[in-house]
Structure formats: structure tokens, C-alpha cells
Amino acid sequence: MAGKILIVDDQFGIRILLNEVFQKEGYETYQAANGVQALDLFAKHSPDLVLLDMKIPGMDGVEILKKMKEMNEHVKVIVMTAYGELDMIHETKKLGALTHFAKPV
After folding, report:
1. Which of 19, 65, 90, 103 sees the fewest Cβ atoms within 10 Å?
2. What is the pTM of this model?
3. 4-102 — its CATH code?
4. Where, per the database record, does this protein carry 4-aspartylphosphate (predicted)?
């Protein structure tokens, strides 16, 4: 396997699309539809990379990233957003996100 990727997005279609792309490239993937699932999978599997949506019901991407950083300060995160949430993107950069990209992919 090339590595482990955690895909965090409340949209089923986005998760499936990214899952297919990365599995075809040899990555082991995990999917979470909300923050609680994301943190649970993160703790269990220690992914090499997290693809993190900003707008998730119950817990936004900034909150999730903060909690992940508490568990592993070296976590690599790429933020995904369908909106122009510049303040949230700026906050995730300060928290150590590698970069961001706009959805749809």
C-alpha cells in the first residue's frame, strides 16, 4: 500500500469518488461523514493524510483539525471546501493545513 488516507466529507458522492481515485492508486482509505467518525477513524488508523471538508454538520473542519492536531501534531491535512470560507481557510492554515482546494473536484 502507498499509504493511508482519511476522507472526511458529509457528501456521500464526494467520499465515494475520492475513495475510488485513491484506492486505484494503491492507497488504503477510510471514510467519515461527520466529525465524531473522523476523530474515531483518525485515532484507530493514524492516516498519513486527511482530506477534510470544512462544512460538516455538528463539527466544522476547524474544530476537527484542532482535535486531530491534539492527537498528532504532525498530521498532514488538505482542506476541501465548496464555499469561499476565507476566514476558515486562513484558520486551518494557521493550524498547519498543507493547502486547500475547492469542490467539486
Report:
1. 90
2. 0.87
3. 3.40.50.2300
4. 53
